């Protein structure tokens, strides 16, 4: 059996191509040949040793598009040769949350490419129910954005009906930009985006934000409400630091919702007195379920923005180390690794 290449991340300065024996699908599994793999903010946090739930070394790739090349025992032959996107949440299927359909918060959730070896490789095996066939109306490049869009779509769904609502998004990286796109698609009346960098704020405006501001300025909350034409009904926080939570509480209308989407770095103080007095609601948001993935596919099939606004660099598998280095540049949005 021939060997395959797989990327291992020992640290941000030590990312290598390793050779391992080609895997074979067991019962209920498929063998997938990777075509496009995205690098995520969580991959970067992990590579820098700063991710709370990922340890080094790790084998990345949870934003994966590929083709099923072999099917294991008991798997439908119809999957063979199918282009697919991977749904990387590996849930137990029988805990209380799984039984309620909320398997994104499975009591023993693992994520493919985070806690288990992922798709940044020539070929990998995965349970057949973790692959979603793609139609011809979405190509591999657009399909690589399905997984990163699914988390924002999930948070937007949990925020309830956004039609006519004023929305603030914190962060104009991939998550913040996709929160903006998803909130506008869900009918938000105005979306205003906060980010430190003018170039990132400009990109958010090109993707439909009505305005943007620097959250570190002393008048940030006043600027936000001015741009919005009132206090916000919903804040999506893609940053999740003490400073953004404080600003969220300042810009929210009474009865508003704070949707925590970014991964906080640890304990994060919050003005609970104001949360209580203003009857604010705070929602944690973790990944997504199949419904959100299908919604993300539907949204991307409409090609709602010029793809070069999001996909800013592409490297081959051999150059994965360069791809990670490029991802460290805040001017990059989504860096992809292709497997020719
Ligand atoms: Zn990710
Ligand atoms: Zn479970």
Explained architecture:
The protein is α/β, with parallel strands linked by helices and 340 residues long. The chain has eleven helices and 17 strands. The chain folds into two domains: 3-145 and 310-338, Alpha-Beta Complex (Quinone Oxidoreductase, Chain A, domain 1); 153-284, Rossmann fold (3-Layer(aba) Sandwich), CATH 3.40.50.720. It has helices at 41-47, 96-99, 140-143, 146-158, 174-185, 198-206, 220-228, 242-251, 272-277, 290-301, 320-327, and strands at 3-11, 14-21, 29-38, 63-71, 83-86, 89-90, 110-111, 123-127, 131-133, 166-170, 190-194, 211-213, 232-237, 252-260, 281-284, 311-316, 334-338. The strands form four sheets. Strands 3, 4, 5, 8, 9, 16 and 17 form a seven-stranded mixed sheet that branches. α4 packs across α5. It is globular. The relative contact order is 0.15. The mean pLDDT is 97. One zinc ion is lined by residues 40, 42, 62-63, 148.
Concise structural overview:
The protein has 340 residues and is α/β, with parallel strands linked by helices. Helix content is 28%, strand content 28%.
Please identify, by name, the CATH architecture of the largest domain: Alpha-Beta Complex
Number of E strands: 17
Largest sheet: 7 strands, mixed
Which of globular, elongated, flat, extended, rod-shaped describes the shape?
globular
The number of distinct helices, counting runs of at least 4 residues, comes to 11
| Class computed from helices, strands and strand pairing | alpha/beta
The string of secondary-structure elements, in order, is: EEEHEEEHEEEHHEHEHEHEHEHEHEHE
Quote the CATH topology of the largest domain: Quinone Oxidoreductase, Chain A, domain 1
Alpha-carbon Rg, integer: 20 Å
Distance between the termini: 20 Å
Q: Which segments are poorly predicted (pLDDT under 50) over 5 or more consecutive residues?
A: none
Let me know the CATH homologous superfamily of the largest domain: Medium-chain alcohol dehydrogenases, catalytic domain
Mean pLDDT: 97
Assign a percent range to the helix content: 25-40%
CATH class of the largest domain, anyone? Answer: Alpha Beta
Which band does the percent of strand residues land in?
25-35%
């Amino acid at each position: 059996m021939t060997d395959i290449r797989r990327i291992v991340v020992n640290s941000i300065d030590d990312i290598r191509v390793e050779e391992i024996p080609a895997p074979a699908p067991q019962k209920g599994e498929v063998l997938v040949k990777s075509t496009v793999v995205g690098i995520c903010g969580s991959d970067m946090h992990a590579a820098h040793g700063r991710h709370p739930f990922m340890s080094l070394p790790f084998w990345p790739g949870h934003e994966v598009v590929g083709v099923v090349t072999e099917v294991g025992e008991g798997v439908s032959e119809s999957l063979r040769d199918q282009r697919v996107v991977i749904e990387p949440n590996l849930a137990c299927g029988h805990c209380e949350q799984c039984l309620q359909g909320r398997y994104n918060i499975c009591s023993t959730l693992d994520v493919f490419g985070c806690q288990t070896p992922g798709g940044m490789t020539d070929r990998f095996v995965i349970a057949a129910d973790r692959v979603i066939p793609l139609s011809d109306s979405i190509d591999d490049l657009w399909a690589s954005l399905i997984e990163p869009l699914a988390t924002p779509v999930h948070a937007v769904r949990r925020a309830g009906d956004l039609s006519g609502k004023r929305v603030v998004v914190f962060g104009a990286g991939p998550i913040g930009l996709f929160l903006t796109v998803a909130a506008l698609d869900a009918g938000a009346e105005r979306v205003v985006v906060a980010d430190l960098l003018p170039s990132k704020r400009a990109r958010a405006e090109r993707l439909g934000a009505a305005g943007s501001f620097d959250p570190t300025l002393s008048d940030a909350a006043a600027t936000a409400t001015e741009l919005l034409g009132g206090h916000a009904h919903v804040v999506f926080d893609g940053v999740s630091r003490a400073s953004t939570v404080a600003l969220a509480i300042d810009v929210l209308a009474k009865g508003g919702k704070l949707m925590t989407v970014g991964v906080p770095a640890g304990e994060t103080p919050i003005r609970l007195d104001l949360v209580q007095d203003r009857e604010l609601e705070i929602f944690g948001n973790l990944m997504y379920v199949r419904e959100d993935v299908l919604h993300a596919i539907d949204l991307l099939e409409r090609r709602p923005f010029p793809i070069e606004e999001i996909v800013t660099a592409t490297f081959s598998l051999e150059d994965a180390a360069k791809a990670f280095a490029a991802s460290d540049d805040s001017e990059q949005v989504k860096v992809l690794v292709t497997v020719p």
